[in-house]
Every structure is written in structure tokens, then in C-alpha cells.
Design goal:
This protein is α/β, with parallel strands linked by helices. It contains 12 helices and 10 strands. The chain has a single domain, classed as NADP-dependent oxidoreductase domain (TIM Barrel). The strands form 2 sheets. Strands 9-8-7-6-5-4-3-10 form an 8-stranded parallel beta sheet, covered by helices on one side. It has a two-stranded antiparallel sheet with strand order 1-2. Helix 2 crosses helix 3 and helix 8 crosses helix 9.
Amino acid sequence: MQLRTLGRSGVLVSELCLGTMTFGWTADESTSHALLDRYVEAGGNFLDTADVYSDGKSEEIIGRWLAGRNRDDVVLATKARFRTGEGANQVGLSRKHLRAAVRDSLRRLRTDHVDLLQLHAWDPLTALDETFGTLHRLVEDGLVRSVGVSNFRAWQFERALQLCRARGWNEPVSLQPQYSLYARATEFELLPMCRAEQVAVLPWSPLAGGFLTGKYREGVRSPPPGTRIAEAQNVELFARRFDNERSARIVEALGAVARETGKTPPQVALNWVLTRPGVTAPIVGARTVGQLVENLGATGWTLTDEQATRLTEAGELGVTYPYDARAEEQQTSDRRLP
């Protein structure tokens, strides 16, 4: 795998990040360690977890795997924000909860620092200076190397970024949004903002919760046994999201390009995401080593321009002002160089 810079931090990370939400959930500890071993063997160095994944078991499994290894060989990212206990303050982005969350994550991970601490989501109840002042001090204390956010809107990220610049605090270097051939609203504000600010983009769910694996050609109301949608509690909810004309166009284009390239649909879908302008490292998860090996096959090759365009157009969202083509033309028509 190739290496890319994590925003302006100067840290180099592999172009596919290994997501570990399955650890302790659909992958037991031995399988999880096998996934980590295979990922590292393929040249990966970037791990993403969170304090709430499997109630902390994901971090514990990673911590036991890290024991006896060179800690500096791994770029380790975790997240904090969501509820970790029954107490009133065991949730949110307050100084109280963030410091407790970092302390507990470090204990589970068996390390003295995390390379990237990400805010898992926006907290409307906590002032930004409380949150980012705390993050700055965590960096100053050596417990955290860099900070990032997940699931922020563009205006929320910019407010945080400008606050950090005004106060001289450590700025967020990364954003972790949902992004895939199916989830495209990220392109309206978030991706242009990240490119302008040189912020790393770490897309989660680049296979749209498994929808882009090619297993649902007949729709999702009768998904194949053993798939994520088949095991979901509310299949009808998935059906309302994915059984429509746009989804069918995406699946059809994905299958056609897969046949042309000799790759699998997940490999094509991942390759499309990791080659999009501004994207640093899509986060890929797996329940088995076989799934991981298939996902790793998304690297080392490129789609043709025509294939990439076909996929992009298949999943385009219908938009109006200010995101439509006419608005873009109005913004640039009188500013072009002669």
C-alpha cells in the first residue's frame, strides 16, 4: 500500500485504514488478531477504533495485539463522545468526559498515547472552547499526538478550526465522514472544505454498509443469508434506503466495471473512493481474513477516467442551488483567465 500524509500533521498513513468495529463483535479475538497481522503484512499501519466499539472490547483486543510490538510502527486512532456508562457525565465532549475517556482508552489499548484522538460527533451542549481547549492540553500532556473529528458538518468543523487558530491551539488534522458511491452529499461542502484547509479525509462505510459488495443484485428485501443486511433487525429500513432507481443504477455500473477490470465489486467501489480528490484513507472493516484480503485488492491499480466517470454519474444526487452546475458556472464565468 502507498502512504499518504495525515493532513498537515506530517504523519504518514497507509491508503487504506483498518477499521476495528467488528473486533469483539462479529470477529472474536483470534480472528481480530489474524486480521491485524494480515493488514500489517500488506503494508498497512493505520488502525481506527473507538471507546464504544463492542463496549471497549475492540480497544482491549488491539491492546493485547500491540503488546510486544514496536508501538511506533502503528498509527493508532480512537474516538470519544458517546455514552460509556450510566453516569450523567459519561457522555459528551466536556473536559470531564474527554479526560476520563482518554484515560480509559489508554488503559484498554495498553499504550501511553494515541496518535489521533477523534471527536466521534458534535456535542450541542458543550462549548467549543471547553472541548478544544481540553484537546490542546491532552496534546501538550503527551497523551494525544493529533486531534480530529468525525461526523461534523462543514460549518461545525470551520468554527472549531478558526477557534483553534485564534487561540493558538492544536488544530484538527482530519475529518471522518460517511462517503461512498452511494453516500455522496459529502461532496457538497465537506470535501471542498477539507481540500482547501489541507485536512485529511478518512471515509467510513465506503461500501455503504455492505450494499456495494455486489451481493444485493436482486434488491435487499430478500438479502442473502449471512450478509449484514440479512442480520439487521429492520430489513425494511434498508429496503427503503436501497430499493430505488438510483441504487439500481449504482449496482449495475459497479457490476459492469468489475467485469471489465477483472476485479470484484467491493474492490471497484473502494478504488473509486480512495482515488477521489481529497480522500486520504478509506476505513475498511472485515469479519474474516478473506474479506480483508479482498478489500486490500482495491489498491495497486486504477480505474480508467471513463470508468470512474461512469461510476460517478451513476450515483449522482439530484441537487439544486447552490450545488447545481448552473450555480457553479455563475460563480466562475466572469473569473476565468483570458
